[in-house]
Amino acid sequence: MTAASQQITKSSKAKRKAKGEFEPRIVAFCCNWCSYAGADLAGTSRMQMPPNARIIRVNCTGRINVSFILDALHQGADGVLISGCHPGDCHYTSGNLKMQGRFTLLRHLVKEAGLHPDRVHLQWASAAEGDVFTQGITAMVERIKKIGPNKVKER
Amino acid sequence: MTEEKTVKIAPVTRLEGHGELTLKIGVDGKVKDVQFNVSSTRFFEKFLEGRFGEEAVRIAPRICGICPEPHHLASTKAVEAAWRITPPPAAVKLRRLLINAKQFSSHAIHFFALAAPDFLAGPLGDPAKRNVVAIIKALPDVGKMALQMMQFGQDLCAAVGGKAIHPVTSIPGGIMHPFSEEKRDEYLKRSEDALEWTTATVDLAKKVVQDYWDPITKLAIVPTYYLGMHNNGKHEIYDGKLRVMDPDGKIVADFKPKDYRKYYGEYVANHSYATHVYYKPEGYPKGIWRANTLARCNVVDEMTTPLAQEALKEMRDALGRPIHATFAYHWARIIELVQSLEEIVGLLKDPDIVSADIKLADVAPRKGDGVGCVEAPRGTLIHHYWTDERGIITRANMIVATNNNIAGLEKSLLTTARQIFEDNALDDLKLPEPMI
Amino acid sequence: MAKRIALAQLSSCWGCDQSLVDLHLGLLDVLPKLDIVFWPTVVDYKLADLEALPNRSVHIGMVEGSCRTKEDLHLLKVMREKCKTLVAWGSCSIFGGVQGLANQWDLKELLERKFIQAETVTDPRIPDENMPGFTEHITPNPQIVECDVLLPGCPPTSENTLDALTALLTNKPFDLPTKTVCDQCPMERKEKHIKKFKRNYEGNIEAGKCILDQGYLCLGFATMGLCGAQCPSVTTPCKGCFGPTPIMSDHGAKIISALGAVAEMEPEELKGSFPDPIGSFYFTDYAASYLSKMRGKERGQEH
Ligand code: SF4
Ligand code: SF4
Ligand code: SF4
Ligand code: FES
Description:
Chain A is of the alpha/beta class and 155 residues long.
């Protein structure tokens, strides 16, 4: 370990920021029925969750307008996470499956446009799976940290 | 004059494409250089990459809104060549109808809107009067006829291509939509009027030739090579071989378009975003060639139709072959105008034109490359695409019609500028009284 | 009294211009109402003539094309200064046009392909004598200067342009429709069960029936309905050249949303049908998309 990195380990988040360490901003679209309940559970049971995500509640992932996802990136989000019910559990039967098709195309589009495709991510988490939800957020933060900041922000 | 002078004309008007003219006049008053600065390009060769071959056919027309049909067809032919497919004969006839309809409207527009203002208002006329709008006001009959001719061609383009500007019906394997009998009858009927207008235009052009005999035969005489398509020696615009004629009138090359790279060179002039295409074996600038109306009429042995052939003979009797007089481009344009109408009528009378057998259903893309070549109104046009096994374009090279003419145009402008500024050629020229 | 009008072309194909000329005899009614102060295709006035006019002295300015060169940027700004009402004329002007597809690459790659690597180029170099230089990125004109009226289409039909001009000449508003090409399309529509997307050359499209229902990507549902459904009327899929309706913020997003709803296919299979989502979903409006705007910011587009 070098001297510089030793310093970082003992510093606070604010100090890390001052040192220029990257704290991703994640927008998470969460379905009301499963994932948002999971997020709630994660909160009430005080599971450890990185503070990087802004959670937006939607009725069903099938109702997410694809342009909101692109707009979030355009406004500087480093990553967008979409969290919905497990296949078969969607409150509106197949909203999540529609989202899955859209997401696959969207991710492909994002990649073709020259952005890292991992900036967008789709996960399933049920109402009881607060842990799955938090792990999902943590993994998303890690993914984005590897990719680096959304360059739109810098200008 | 004590210092070198640069005269800039921006933009060059009554010409499609973005151009400026830079003239350099030396201390001695001599014209040192003429630059035609083509000031824009949009990089189609790059952004076609990654697209489906059949979608390139929709993108390519946007290279030129004045002549989208040739691009639509050259693009289709390039994909078909790469995928090694041959469209049904009736589809080819519809494509010929489409390209001739464009040839007709483009030549009419060019003659009346871009060239005639100089003849009718006089080349030195007031800029406010030297345009087609003023012609319409001053000579309403000529104006009206010009508009009707353009409309006939454009409407026919739309009838075959779906849209006159950026047609859509041509596709690798054929044509998407049949031409109905009602439409055939309608256009046969309308072609009778078109023939009348065309005859009147020929008469008008003859008068212009007489009136302007002096400048035609004295100004801007520029020997160059010439490039044009032919089919067994006959004039051709949809599918044929390419001929190159040298300034003495000798055919120095006769080749299939797919071999174009042996004969075509693109000189990148430092002052133009449009490259100067030339006859590669001779090098640049010796191999400067011109395409377009006069070039085609120079390289072919004969026209395909009787009235046009008569008109070609008349021009050759008057000016010989090859003709280097730049103003004769307008004359050749009228000859081709006549031929395109005769071709249109012939195609409309062909029973195949209303055939429903116009598209292959079992086209399969493949990896390869293909060249699509047609004659656009302004010259030979080449699209060359490479596709992968899914039929996606991996590489594209395009040589658009106008680029064949830029070096020749500069040469011609330099010659004329010298004649005007150094030899005061205008003083001795016999010019008629302007009609408006 | 005739209103003063200026018509300017930035980098474009001139098709919008041609579409106005294609009013043909209809021009005889319109022209007397117009006093043309700038229109390089037709009239011999020069840029200096336009620059010399007092600011805001031209009633109507029509701008065709997009800013591919720095000269285009200059002309666009001059037009904005001189004209009271500025019309972004055609999809190039409003959305960046087909050349917006070039935003997938950096300018350097575009220049190299054209001037350095092209098969037939014999003396590679990038021209820079008396040349304006290029913009790094295509930016739609309304993001560069304020545009008062938007008239989309590649090109707008002659009637579209006439309607807009007539509205402007009579001081009426010219509003864009929220209806789509499907609303204008004569094809018979059924419930959609798309099991496979076919390429346009595959099989034969049956006339009279909705092309999308038959499994071909027809973008009428996501495209502004102004053209009269020209392409489906000749059994050819709509590629969306009039751009999205005013209530859709991103053309591709709208198309992806709809495909997710109508395609009865595995996600991977759906993705496999569209290996080129940019070319397939943003024919003439990629430069106006969120993703392209992001690249533009990265590239530090200059206005
Ligand atoms: S919008 Fe289309 S028709 Fe108009 S200039 Fe652009 S490419 Fe040409
Ligand atoms: S999808 Fe196409 S064919 Fe079907 S109704 Fe809409 S525009 Fe017409
Ligand atoms: S149908 Fe679609 S592609 Fe065709 S002209 Fe209309 S909007 Fe453009
Ligand atoms: S209700 Fe949760 S994804 Fe549809």
